[in-house]
UniProtKB/TrEMBL annotation:
Organism per entry: Moheibacter stercoris
Protein's UniProt name: Zn-dependent M28 family amino/carboxypeptidase
Residue ranges of domain Peptidase M28 in the record: 111-322
Signal peptide (UniProt feature, chain positions): none
SUPFAM superfamilies: Zn-dependent exopeptidases
Length: 343
């Protein structure tokens, strides 16, 4: 009987290992909707009401509120058993940026990094980024930054959780995923600049794409009668492949209206150069910047969590997650077929 039990246990373990290792691309495609639907407006709302609360004091770079936000992110990754990158540049999820590294950084600050190692091509890395700093307090008034960029920050947490849920079911991403929460965006994209220009935790030549999120929780004036949209910026600036993959994923799973108005090289707002993806793009890393457009509460104390459209925030987060899933599980990396555009 003991021998029989031993054989049965061995067979079960063998079956589990096989199921985790032999999934084909078609299996990942069929499984994806389950994990898309695990990203919910309720969980995003719970996170954001904490993350954009007065307790975090507007998350100004180097200040106590920013430190509380960094700890909130780190504690989430620890709870979800998502690893810190193994790197001399990272200490327990934090990539430290000393004061005066750049003239605008007056106090020590830190990027926060969570990491899922790929099962087949771990050296190829997809970076999903959002800045978690905001503009702090002015005359005792908290600028909560719920949309800018609390919305992107909590979206990263939900996506990381969705990937971890898939891993528990045996659907481990084939390529690695770095969840990069950058600091000091509001004072010059300096957290992402530090990552790309001074301390890239993973070689930039092996970074196959950057999906960057900066404000995805609101509706702008141009879409007040059609909320099912998101602005995409940069999708085809460097890689036709990335643009096609993005369109395919949206058409198959999410069906949002993808608005490329601000992707035009003639765009007077120059948004392509104004968020953290640009520090990756200037190194010829294909990128997509996800954005809801500006609104009357941009950089105002009225950018509060009660004004977020949580169903829309969830749908946009699902789109980005599905795009990352496709990038992580497709055999080829996006080809860079267009030259870098400088300022």
């Amino acid at each position: 009987m003991k021998q029989f039990i031993g054989f049965a246990l061995l067979a079960t373990l063998t079956l589990q290992c096989t199921s985790q290792q032999n999934f084909q691309k078609s299996d990942y495609d069929k499984a994806l909707p389950k994990y898309i639907n695990s990203i919910t407006s309720e969980e995003l709302k719970t996170h954001l009401y904490i993350f954009a609360s007065d307790e975090f004091e507007g998350r100004n770079t180097g200040e106590e509120g920013q430190k509380k936000a960094a700890n909130y992110i780190r504690d989430f990754y620890i709870k979800e058993k998502i690893a810190s990158p193994e790197s001399p540049f990272v200490d327990n999820y934090f990539q430290y940026i000393p004061a005066k590294t750049y003239s605008r950084i007056q106090k020590d600050t830190e990027n926060v990094l969570g990491f899922i190692k790929g099962s087949e091509k771990p050296e190829e890395v997809i970076v999903i980024s959002a800045h978690y700093d905001h503009v702090g307090m002015h005359d005792g008034v908290v600028f909560n930054g719920a949309d800018d960029d609390g919305s992107g920050s909590v979206a990263l947490l939900e996506m990381a959780q969705a990937f971890q849920l898939a891993i528990k079911d045996g659907y481990h991403p084939k390529k690695s995923i770095l969840f990069l929460h950058v600091t000091a965006e509001e004072i010059g994209l300096l957290g992402s600049k530090f990552y790309t220009d001074q301390q890239p935790v993973f070689p930039l030549e092996n970074t196959i794409a950057n999906l960057n999120i900066d404000m995805i929780g609101r509706v702008d004036e141009a879409h007040k009668n059609d909320e099912n949209y998101v602005y995409l910026i940069g999708t085809d600036r460097l890689s036709t492949d990335l643009h096609k993959l993005s369109e395919k994923v949206n058409n198959q799973y999410i069906k949002m209206n993808l608005d490329y108005t601000y992707n035009a090289e003639s765009d007077p707002n120059r948004f392509y150069y104004r968020s953290d993806h640009y520090n990756f793009a200037k190194h010829d890393i294909p990128c997509i910047f996800y954005f809801n457009g500006v609104h009357e509460d941009y950089h105002q104390p009225t950018d509060t969590p009660d004004k977020i459209n949580y169903d829309l925030l969830a749908k946009r987060t699902q789109l980005i997650f599905a795009t990352a899933w496709e990038l992580a599980n497709t055999e080829k990396r996006p080809v860079v077929d267009k030259p870098t555009k400088t300022k």
